[in-house]
Amino acid sequence: MDVTAKARAGWDWLKGPEPWTPRMSAGDLALAAVVVLLGLGVEELDHGGTARMVASGAAVVVLVLLRRRLPVATLVAAGAVTPFLPGALLITIVLGWSAGRRIVGVGRALAAFTAAFLAQVGLSVVEQWSQMRPVPVIVFSTLMFLVTTVMPGLASRYWSQRRTLLRALQERNGQLMRERAMVAGQARLRERQRIAQDMHDSLGHQLALISVHTGALEVDPELTDRQREAVGVLRQASVSAMHELREVVGILRDGVEAPVPVEEAQPAARGVAGITGIVEAARSAGTDVRLTTAGRPRPLAAACDHAAYRIVQEALTNAYKHAPGAAIAVELRYEDDSLVVEIANGPAAGAGAGEVVSGGQGLTGLRERARLVGGMVHAGPAEGGGFRVAGVLPYGAEPAGVGDVADDFGQAQALAAAAGAPPMDWAAVDRELLVRGRSRVGGVALGCGIAFAALVVLVIVVGAGAAMLVGSVGKAMISREEYDRIRVGDTEQAVREQLPDGESFLTEGLDRRGPERPAGASCTALLSADDSRMTTDTVFRFCFKDGRLVEKQAYEVEQ
Predict the structure, then answer these.
(1) What is the pLDDT of residues 130-184, one digit of tens each?
(2) What region, left, alpha or beta, does residue 437 occupy, with left being phi > 0 and alpha being psi -120 to 50 degrees?
């Protein structure tokens, strides 16, 4: 990897998911203003000068404005700045919250917070090295980092993860609702197709039968002119009805590319058992129809049973329309593995009277019905000028292609992808949900666990700091009575046996803040346990030289 690639990778690691824009939001400016005002109060309490106040304000504004784009860099920079600019301490709360939300990945977040901790604690030790011991500084800095940075970061990260979880659930629910609407649309298309198919098969057959009856009556020589005219009106009405049926079927088929599987259960009148009825109806109309059955009858699946009935019905309808007066032979052969349905008619006995109406969908529908149940249909001219329709239907077969067709939700997702909508990666969502909690109760438990762990750490640190503070106070204070009891000229050993050792951060530098010390003397300064006030402390200083107490002083210093 070259230098440019390494630099780009480092920049990608530092930056956050939100792009930076030159236009500064009013919210960020208002937040920066509030933190700057609070920081000025902190600087005033710490007796900071004007230059330090200006530097603290500038640092706060810059860090607030860059926190969205550079959460890692701003977090570490705040850890490095706050030891030298106490007025910028409160910005760590904002940056900890922002970093917890925006740093992607647990590893990156842990590395960023660790770097910020090391920067803040290390530079605090460097800044206070000349005034106090490093251990109290480390303890105090760790406590402040936990309170002002870690706890807001953990709370923000939990809140962000819970919001992401809820958003993923909402998106998944919306996707399911859209898929449900698509499935409902497909169901409507299937119902329209079924209605169109049934209208074409049933009503078309009945209208064709009416047309055959009226055509035969219209040429009957025994009818009077008035009766013949009435029959002609009936025949014309049947032809008009067939026209309207064709238009309605076309409307119902509009937008449906292919037929769908027929229903699984049909009444007996629309199965093989109903073929005898439609043959008898054709005979009663004067058509020469013969029905023969070969082989041992066997039960068929509901879809196959219905398909056999429709094949015979459609073939008879075509024979009525295109070959009026021709003899028709219907044969059912029960083979070893399938039922063969064959309908053959001879050439027309004469020119049919009137107009022949055809929707052009009958044979196409038959082929599709047979295909869906695993069979096939053949239609074509027969020897001698007739026409033959034959269908082969398996026994008990499941609809063909069922295993190849996706379920309704799968089809809906395919339709959504075809429409240009990006498909939802549910596997990724499931992994996200698994990582971020199996349920809302799990998320709450996770948040409570984080808060409890942070509280435990905080209590331990506070307890250790309090114990250290109590010990330091005991080593740094004496009463006025103890001070008065010690006399100048006493041996250094006797005096030190009566005094605490003074090894406390509370006494660091106090011996140099009073009157000038005797030349060549070593001094120990302690705080008064009785005379300390809100703004000043009373200091007792003891100076030793050549093994003797050569001077003791009591003076006031500002806190």
Answers:
(1) 665 677 778 878 888 888 888 888 888 888 888 888 888 888 888 888 888 888 7
(2) left
